[in-house]
Amino acid sequence: MRGFVDGLRAVHAFEPRGDGKAGGTYNERVKRRELRSEHPLVTVHAETGERVLFASPSFLKSIVGLSPRESQKILEILWEHVVRPEYTVRFKWNEGDIAFWDNRSTAHLAPRDIFQSDFDRQLYRITLVGQPLVGVDGKPSRPIEGVPILSAAEELRMMAAE
Questions:
Q1: CA nearest neighbour of 4 among 44, 51, 41, 59
Q2: pTM for the complete prediction?
Q3: Among the residues of the chain, which ranges form H helices?
Q4: What separation in angstroms does the CA of 70 have from each of 23, 41, 42, 62, 79?
């Protein structure tokens, strides 16, 4: 299975949540910035050199070159694999805690019981701009549709370089 998956590429999309009705303002902003990319299903982490299964159930839509049914079945197997207890971490929040993770090698899913704590949580998402993901074959990710969302500083840096 590893040999088969190593060579696969997948389409990832940042799309509105749910049926498009919930989260109206958020979904409208997402629709204006549609983003679709093709990423290797197995990437090589830029710093550690480790192979990483890049299979987020939230963003991964299909496997390139497979029929929709084949794609869905393989993805179901992979998603079941990544949530096995030996590959998961459950962070128990305490007041004053700070947590961060590397989305290049982590599938993040917020638990449904987060509202049952005795304190408020403040969440800030920070996305760092870096090199495109690279597959085992050395081929990088590629954009399909849309323009990556960059930080204001990165936008200014790119404009200055032009």
A1: 41
A2: 0.74
A3: 2-6, 24-32, 68-82, 152-161
A4: 32, 15, 18, 9, 14
